[in-house]
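Translate sequence into structure tokens.
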Amino acid sequence: MPTLVWIELQKLFCRSRSYIAFIAIGLIVGVIEWGLRLEGHQVLELLMQNLQEAFLFQGNLLNGYLVTYLVLNSLWLHVPILIALVTGDLVSGEAQAGTMRLLLTRPVGRLRLLTAKYLAGLLYTALVVAFLAVTSWGMGRLCFGTGDLIVFYQTMNIVPEAELPWRFAAAFAYGALSMGVVASLAFFCSTLANHSLGPIITTVAILIGCTIVSTFEVGMFRTVQPFLFTTYLSKWQGFFAFDVQGEDMGLAIGILVGHMAVFFGGAAGVFLRKDWTT
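Result follows.
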């Protein structure tokens, strides 16, 4: 299995579209941090204007940790699309190119082949999130230094600098898991089609639709929201609460893992039954 996964990773990175996510993230993070470098202090003073009348703030408030937190909030809207652009092509791209029939003639079981492709997609997703972490945190610390983090999650929280490394590590790990659900959805859609564009568009459409349902606090939507994975994509913010609710975070992680299992199970069911010779 490790050899199959390595082969699938090599095939994945031979495609030019696999590098779009890294280039886009690098450019967007650079633009955001450049803008904050120019206008960040003015924006921060405007946001903290009312609080400064009641609290005395000292130290470097506009630091690398705050920049990383802001980048996380702004980029999770775009990262799922970048993930779907690649993982939605893992199976359908082979079918469109006509190489799937050749792969299935080799003495490798269908389930092993599908699992290798799926694991390669998850590893790619983890690499994208890791690249986001390195660029946002590294560039932020280099350009803005360090300090305590002020976040507005449920209420205003001041997180000491000593606690920030493990909180950010947990947030990025959770982010990788949530993006793994997106990759699993795109992978499932990829097994349903013989062309690359369809699964990518379908995944993005599902993401937009589910996000709308997860966002609007309407009576009929509230009953559905706990079952949608998009409801839990932004739960990484819970790691920056004053008291991290381990039970709630564990439930969110369990739901995301459950969605991944359902999507992969659906993909396996389709792939094992589908006639790839046509």
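Note: The chain has one domain: 2-273.
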